């Protein structure tokens, strides 16, 4: 979910309720009470995530249930504060992947994939819910470095 929605792994994803997913408009609502920014935002839901959530029957789930419930399925109580990260770490370690891969990396990987597919900095800013374009540009330089396909592949000959 983080890869496609860029929802932060802490309170935002842990406290997400089924009713926060608006299937008709393909939006996910991150409420101000859980958002890092303290503001309510509507996130566009990519079709891949939409289809997975339909497959998981989230569209007919009780809207008051937490998407990530305490017992590994939608429930009345949210999953524990560190549960998702701990599960990720166990899987990462069992696959002998570097500890440099963090649970939060899914959000970054999704943004990087968007950039690779040609999304503009402004589109990525909106998806990541950054307040300023400078934050997105700083993040992109740190994560991606300076990449420019036009310079790599279309530089004029002498």
UniProtKB/TrEMBL annotation:
Keywords: DNA recombination. PROSITE patterns: TYR_RECOMBINASE (PS51898). GO terms for biological process: DNA integration; DNA recombination. InterPro entries: DNA_brk_join_enz, Integrase-like_cat_sf, Integrase_catalytic. CDD domains: DNA_BRE_C. Residues 1-153 form the Tyr recombinase domain. One of its GO terms (molecular function) is DNA binding. Transmembrane segments: none annotated. This is Tyrosine recombinase XerC.
């Amino acid at each position: 979910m983080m890869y496609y929605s860029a929802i932060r792994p802490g309170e935002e994803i842990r406290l997400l309720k089924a009713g926060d997913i608006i299937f008709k408009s393909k939006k996910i609502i991150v409420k101000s009470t859980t958002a890092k920014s303290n503001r309510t935002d509507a996130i566009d839901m990519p079709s891949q995530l939409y289809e997975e959530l339909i497959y998981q029957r989230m569209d007919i789930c009780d809207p008051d249930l937490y998407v990530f419930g305490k017992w590994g399925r939608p429930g009345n109580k949210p999953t524990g504060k560190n549960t998702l990260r701990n599960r990720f770490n166990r899987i990462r370690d069992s696959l002998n992947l570097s500890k440099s891969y963090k649970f939060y990396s899914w959000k970054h990987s999704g943004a990087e994939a968007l950039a690779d597919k040609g999304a503009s900095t402004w589109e990525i800013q909106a998806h990541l819910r950054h307040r300023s374009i400078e934050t997105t540009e700083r993040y992109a330089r740190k994560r991606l470095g300076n990449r420019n396909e036009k310079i790599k592949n279309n530089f004029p000959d002498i």
